[in-house]
Write a structure and sequence with these properties.
It is a single chain. The chain is of the alpha+beta class and about 550 residues long. It has 18 helices and 11 strands. It has 3 domains: about 140 residues, no CATH class; about 110 residues, Butyryl-CoA Dehydrogenase, subunit A, domain 2, CATH 2.40.110; about 240 residues, Butyryl-CoA Dehydrogenase, subunit A, domain 3, CATH 1.20.140. The strands form 3 sheets. Strands 3, 4, 5, 6, 7, 8 and 9 form a 7-stranded mixed sheet that branches.
Length: about 550
């Protein structure tokens, strides 16, 4: 026996060192370049602390614990009184506190920093690489602000709490809490994405409030302080209402948690079925215009879906590369094996492109390019989120059997990988949204055309792809074209951005493999050897 309790034959060799500690900001070339390109000074320096924190082994342990010990529903106390509360592991609260204190929720909306949304997006990208589940309430709290501006009174009452950088868990009077979190309730079992089929009813009261009766099939983060909820108002139609968990003054609102969903991934985050029974809410926006009102929130959460998917891809690629740089096969490191290099280079191109597109979109929020945001966020959400299972799955395979073991961290990334393609509109819903925008929103379409035109003349393959896209958009598009056009639009946008901001080897290889006559298929099959070496040299 050896001193560590093993036997003499038990020698640990040819295993990579732990991935952490590292610095998730300083080791990401594309992120650093994008922050410098769009953010000016102080650029990346403003996120230096978060870069180190997200690469700390203790932070990774929070993520592991929050998923190993998922939230627990407590419907009643010991005396039989309704509680409708959810208990979380302390690690969840550590993750939430870190994100709130770093202003990754509603803080950018009241910041004087002209690059507040870009820096917030970069912080969300870093924290999402650590743990994706806690990003749900962080994202919804960020996204509620534009919708809440339809009611100056509600914005004035709840705005200070939603933008505060103080994290205080637990249910309490929202006027007394130093910090608030927000959620959203749209989905019902009979309608799913067809929210116009919602059956929840809202009846106006003499004091101007409403009483809601109904059921929500999927309500994420039910321990948030207030929610935007869709309900039918007689004579008006689908409307948006603000529903708090606790009413001003301290009385609990009726918000009955029926059960928590047992999900494939996102297990650290509670998602619940909720029952409303004479539940108090206040109208947000115009009566009967609920879908239009809440879509202002959805656009921002869709942006976070893009960021979150890009983060998962980056985290998976970084782990795969770390493994390949330290694992030997047949006498040489994996990173030196030609086939492995081709795979890693392809994954690097995918993560660079995903990062480039969310950086541009976050900058567009800062610069008030609302027309571009409306259409480009939807197209990017369709494509980047759709790519995640493929990218993360290939990265997992780079570790072989080690990647299939929970301790590697890759299985959790893989379970998360399909989520953002489903959240806030699944693939078909998003693709049809893109098609509608192309057909009805002239300002959005022209903003997109102008954005893509910037890179015309910089690469032959790009010019051909842009011409082909223009020709397709000039013809009548059918619903069956939605997915193809959405994906094509997103890839051309990624190419345009890489041509403007990425080193030549990356943009050239991306255009050659994603825009050619034989579009990107099997990972590692299309990047030329010279391009592989150049891409990997850039990390």
């Amino acid at each position: 026996m050896t001193q560590d309790g093993g036997v003499a034959t038990h020698q640990v060799t040819n295993q990579p060192p732990p991935y952490r500690p590292t610095d998730l900001l300083r080791t990401d070339r594309g992120l650093l370049a994008g922050l410098r390109h769009y953010g000016g000074r102080p650029g990346p320096e403003a996120l230096a602390g978060l870069g180190r924190l997200t690469g700390d082994p203790e932070t990774e342990q929070w993520a592991e614990q929050a998923n190993t010990y998922p939230p627990v529903l407590r419907t009643h106390d010991r005396y039989g009184r309704r509680l409708d509360e959810v208990d979380f592991h302390p690690a969840w609260h550590s993750l939430m506190r870190t994100s709130v204190e770093n202003g990754l929720h509603g803080a950018p909306w009241v910041s004087a920093d002209p690059h507040a949304h870009l820096r917030r997006a970069a912080g969300f990208f870093l924290m999402s690489q650590v743990e994706a589940g806690h990003g749900c309430p962080i994202s919804m709290t960020y996204a509620i602000w534009p919708a809440l501006q339809h009611d100056a009174v509600l914005a004035g009452v709840f705005g200070p709490g939603l933008t505060s950088t103080t994290y205080q868990p637990g249910l309490d009077d929202p006027l007394a809490k130093p910090g608030l979190l927000a959620g959203m309730g749209m989905t019902e079992k009979q309608g799913g994405s067809d929210v116009r089929a919602n059956a929840t009813r809202a009846v106006e009261q003499p004091d101007g409030s409403y009483r809601l009766t109904g059921h929500k099939w999927f309500c994420s983060a039910p321990m948030c302080d207030l929610f935007l909820v869709l309900a039918q108002i007689d004579g008006a139609g689908l409307s948006c209402l603000c529903v708090p968990r606790v009413l001003p003054g301290g009385q609990r609102n009726v918000f009955v948690l029926q059960r928590l969903k047992d999900k494939l991934g996102n297990r650290s985050n509670a998602s619940a079925e909720v029952e409303f029974d004479d539940t108090v809410g206040w109208l947000v926006g115009e009566s009967g215009q609920g879908l239009r009102t809440i879509l202002e929130m959805v656009t921002m959460t869709r942006l976070d879906c893009v960021i979150g998917s890009a983060a998962g891809q980056r985290a998976a690629y970084a782990r795969a590369r770390h493994h390949a740089e330290h694992r030997s096969v047949h006498g040489s490191l994996l990173i030196d094996q030609p086939v492995m290099r081709a795979v890693l280079a392809d994954l690097a191109l995918e993560t660079e492109a995903a990062t480039a597109v969310w950086l541009r979109l976050a900058h567009a929020v800062d610069s008030g390019e609302q027309a571009l945001v409306r259409i480009a966020v939807a197209a990017a959400k369709f494509w980047v989120c759709k790519r995640s299972p493929l990218v993360v799955g290939e990265a997992l395979e780079c570790l072989g059997g080690n990647g299939y073991v929970e301790e590697s961290g890759m299985p959790r990334l893989f379970r998360e990988s399909p989520l953002n393609s489903i959240w806030e509109g699944s693939g078909n819903v998003i693709a049809l949204d893109v098609l509608r925008a192309l057909g009805r929103d002239e300002a959005a379409t022209e903003a997109l055309r102008a954005e893509l035109a910037v890179s015309r003349g910089t690469h032959d393959a790009y010019d051909r792809a842009l011409t082909e896209l223009d020709q397709q958009l000039a013809t009548g598009l059918e619903p069956t074209d939605a997915r193809r056009v959405s994906g094509q639009l997103a890839v051309v946008l990624q190419a345009s951005l890489l041509l403007r901001s990425a080193p030549g080897p990356i943009s050239d290889a991306f255009c050659a493999t994603r825009l050619g006559p034989q579009p990107f298929g099997v990972v590692g099959s299309g990047v030329p050897r010279t391009a592989v070496d150049a891409v990997l040299a850039l990390r």
